[in-house]
Amino acid sequence: IFDLLDVSDGLGISGTNENTDTSLTEYSDAVRNYNNTSSLGTRRILAIHTAESRETAALSIRKFGLTEVERAIKFLHPDFVVHMTQATDKDITAIATNKIGVVVCPRSNGLLGCGVPRIGDMIKKGCTVGLGTDNVMLNSPDLFKEMDYIWKVSRAGHIHQISALDILKMATVNGAEILHLNSGCIESGRSADLLFIDKRHIDLYPIHDPYASIVQRASQSSIMGMMINGQFVTVIS
Length: 237
What we know:
The chain is an alpha/beta fold. The chain contains 11 helices and 8 strands.
């Protein structure tokens, strides 16, 4: 497993139900030991999909007597969990208390009929919530579409309404924090990882609320350029 960690950013476990308590602990010990002994200087992260569907939530209680989230916290100690669509109030509080990040994938949950993650409740309880797309077998890896989807679902009243600023933070500041990146916002000492958006693009103009405009209306076609660590990697004329 150390060989795998040498060439990856960490481990992403598919779920708790298909793992014993012992195997979850072994994953946790392997990543912790690697981080303590590696000379590469880059911390490897540990994540797991959890509480995505009603079926997996019920199976965990029936098979182990604990929720998926409770088992993840007790045996795996992950840096972040993915989905949390069926998380209980107790689960959400425990994730916040243990300072474990949450990555929600609303479009995937909608496609699979799993429900809508309670992002507003997570934010209220102090969770750091990031935005993901799950996997390319289900969705295009497009965070603009993800932001637009959760914004509209929120405003439709299916979950506690979330501000456009909070949604934008999920795709930028919070994501960087969860992944331990020195990025995510424009600030002295941060890596200059930036997307440049054409504010006069037909999808955006006129802009009255920049947060809402980006969340609801920006798309890949409105990107003018991209910078990674201060160097332009893409410039679109």
